[in-house]
Amino acid sequence: MSTMIGTMFLILVAVSCGAAALLGGRDGRSVALLYVLALVGTHYARAAQQSWASPHLPVFMVDLALLTGLIAVAMASRRYWTIWLAGLHLLTVASHGSVWFLGSFDARAYFVLESVWSPVKLIVLLIGVLLDWGGILENGRADRK
Predict the structure, then answer these.
(1) How many Å apart are CA 97 and CA 18, to the nearest integer?
(2) Angle CA(123)–CA(63)–CA(7) in degrees, nearest 5?
(3) pLDDT tens across 40-49, in order?
(4) Mean pLDDT over residues 20-32, rounded?
(5) pTM assigned to the model
(6) Average pLDDT value for residue range 91-97
């Protein structure tokens, strides 16, 4: 990953997860923690297997664990953005499965399929938390936990 793209991604992670942790209530804090843990886990998983020329089992395991956590949060939540995050992350997990079934594939395409949804998920997280926060402020609701 180029330095500039990596830096922009880390800024997006910091802004999205920071906003979720500060403004997102229990759901936001849970998702922010899950996402940061998955980010660290993915960093080490990618180091464990450098090549994308074959299915990347270590990253798949991290993605599967994150999907499990996101589904658990979505099932316990009353917020729609949690469902969107789980659904978008399911696409990431499905990209691993598609590579296993294809047998022959381009390593760059696999990396892109596995990575493309991450910024989208972070933007959905940020917008969802901000919309919920704005609605809470506007309506004076105190139903956040």
Answers:
(1) 31
(2) 45
(3) 999 999 888 7
(4) 95
(5) 0.85
(6) 88
Looking at per-residue pLDDT, the higher value among 113 and 34 belongs to 34
CB 86 within 8 A of CB 67: yes
Give the Å distances, CA to CA, from 115 to 6, 37, 39, 90: 12, 16, 12, 12
- What's the burial of 46, exposed, middle or buried (CB within 10 Å: 0-12/13-18/19+)? middle
Give burial (CB, 10 Å; 0-12/13-18/19+) of 50.
exposed
What are the residue ranges spanned by the domains of the chain? 3-139
